[in-house]
Design brief:
binds FE2/S2 (inorganic) cluster; 2 strands; 4 helices; about 10% strand; mainly alpha; Arc Repressor Mutant, subunit A; globular
């Protein structure tokens, strides 16, 4: 893993809960490949915004992988 990948993994996907991209990637690697599944596995979407901010980011991440 190069420096760029490490820094990329530190980007917050769910800002309310401070959940970083690398946590999502770990769960995606176990076979979770839906927004709902990732929300359940990580706790994303349970912050004050109710997932308004992170849901589109999770969707974009799933498109990216
Ligand atoms: S950013 Fe994820 S719940 Fe608000």
């Amino acid at each position: 893993m190069n420096e760029e990948e490490i820094l990329d993994g530190l980007k917050a996907i769910c800002l309310c809960k401070g959940i970083r991209k690398k946590i999502f990637l770990k769960h995606i690697a176990t076979g979770i490949n839906t927004i709902e599944g990732l929300r359940k596995a990580t706790g994303a979407g349970s912050g004050p915004c109710g997932g308004k901010r992170c849901t589109p980011r999770i969707a974009a991440l799933l498109d990216e992988v």
